[in-house]
Every structure is written in C-alpha cells, then in structure tokens.
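Lab channel / #folding
Pinned by the channel admin:
"Please post every new chain as: sequence first, then the structure tokens as a reply. Keep commentary short and put observations after the output so the thread stays searchable."

First post following the new format, from NK:
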Amino acid sequence: PVFEREMGCTGDELRAWLPGASGGAPLAWRDDGADVAVGGGCLRLRWHALPPRRIALIVLPRLRVRFEFDGAGADERRRFMRHFDLYTQRGGG
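Reply from TO:
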C-alpha cells in the first residue's frame, strides 16, 4: 500500500521524531526520507517541503510525506501507523 499525506512540520522535525515514531525500529536515512523496518517488511518514507500555510499572521510549515509499505502485513501496517500517528500528533490544549 502506498499513500501520501500532508503533515504540519518541517523535515528537520520529522527526522527528530522518526526514531520514536517508529517505535525504535531500525532506520536507514536518505536525503529525501528514510527506510524503516516494519515487521517482516519495510516502509519507505519520502518527503518534500510544501509552501507554508498562512492564516492571518500565523505561518505553519507543511510537508508532503509519501508512505510506501513493502512486505509488511496489514496488521503490522496498522500497528505501525497507529503508533506513528499518536507519536507525531500535535494537540491543542
């Protein structure tokens, strides 16, 4: 399965989050992303910066992130994405 999503962060922030967001799984860094071991397979993450979103005086960074799973089962993908999403979630308070 392959999908893309927009994330409200910079590439540097995503790189800093990825070791924790991947649950400590082995990572191989690339200039435009990373490869993450997921169960018996791999997740290829690729990203590039998008123009920031501007709302009045607020400027929010944006990344287009491509998720490409190879060889990981459906349960492994769901488990990984649930942890990834919770880890990278930005909340209001």
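NK: The chain has a mean pLDDT of 94.
TO: also worth noting, The two ends are 34 Å apart (CA to CA).
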